[in-house]
Amino acid sequence: MRNKDKSRKWMWWFLGGGAALQLYFVRELLAAFAFFAVAFAAIALVVASLYTLQRGWAVAVERIADSKHPIMVAVRQSVDSVEDIVRRPLRRPDSEPAR
Fold it and tell me: What are 11-21's pLDDT values in tens digits?
């Protein structure tokens, strides 16, 4: 009877140790999951904020470009004149070709 009680005692210690290891493992998995969830949320927040900033910038530039404000009209005319200058040929049409 004494030997049987020792065996049961070791069996319970073994089962308790196995359960404790399993709980520790589960706790570690949950901690790793929480860590990755927080990291993913941070990355998603950065990406979403950059997207929002870019879209806001695009809307602001579009509204400014469509503006009828006198300064914007002058800027638009100067950009058009620079584009015309760039499109002109460097030589006169009747000049000799370069050698």
Answer: 999 898 888 87
